[in-house]
Design a protein that fits this description.
With 142 residues, this protein is of the alpha/beta class. 40% of the residues lie in helices and 21% in strands. It has a five-stranded mixed sheet. Strand 3 (53-59), helix 3 and strand 4 form a beta-alpha-beta unit. Helix 3 (61-70) packs parallel to helix 4 (82-88). The radius of gyration is 14 Å and the shape is globular.
Length: 142
Amino acid sequence: MNKLLAEAAQRLDKENTSIFVLGRGEPYSSLARGIAPIIQPMEQDPDFFRETFVADKVIGRAAALLLIKGGIRGLYAKVISTSAVEVLKDTGIELHFEQEVPRILNRTGDGFCPMETATQGITDPEEAFRVLQKKRKEMGKH
């Protein structure tokens, strides 16, 4: 595993954040849940994640497509969905994870993650970004 990716993974645990990013300027971390810690910085700066190494607790298809659009170099996930693994393969992004699950559940655990569902069948990261922005607005998460 790349040294920066390994460090991001260690700091994810040590600092108990939902995401930890190294490789460009100051380290970035967030306690926000879902895709918020990924999509919000991208809305401010489309190159925010370019050439970085990302460690995240949960990666579903939506997050994976956003990170592909962001141009990351490496990703470590504690939990990753099968469809996230599928969209990440053949991208050249270094990928490590602890557990692969069929689908990511919603926060109440009684259904599937709405963001993962919204990107089902989407393979273009640009299209996924637009769909996810729209879905967040519909859900009242600006």
